[in-house]
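Batch job 17 of 40 flagged for manual review because the log was empty.
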Amino acid sequence: MNDDFESKSARKREAHRLRALGLELAKLTSEQRAGLPLDADLERALAEYARITSHIARKRHVQRIGRLMRAADVAAIEAGIEHLRGESASARYAQHAIEQWRAALLAEDAALTEFMSHYGPVDAPQLRQLIRRARARPEDSGRARALFRHLREIVERHDQPVPPTVI
């Protein structure tokens, strides 16, 4: 028997998987898709999907996207989507590093100097104000989340997050 034989069921499972991945891509914004390795035909098809309003037409178009996905680098696209969802190892690492920075900044004043040395020029007055607000009312988790969001914006501008050494 031929070693390259693939059953019809296996081909159908793969087609369903590619179609589901294509639908997930179609639901992303164009900014989110910008970092993914998509060819021009697939990108156009994904943009067209957003303009289609008819249910049946969308269903047919998802089939087309699934066919275009066969030629795409599926592994790289899946890795990019995992990173967008925060499921990749690098996304989890960045999340933990930001959480460590927030804890260090709330615990010690010296952490701010270290943060600024790692991430360069930041809006120091705004960062100090967010830290002061979070320290003033530690029971208010909204203030800690605001600090976290600001830190995430700063860290995302850099290639690799650096966890603090102050903790």
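Reviewer: the log was empty due to a logging misconfiguration, but the result itself is present. Residues 89-156 form a domain with the Diphtheria Toxin Repressor; domain 2 fold (CATH 1.10.60.30). Unflagging and moving on to job 18.
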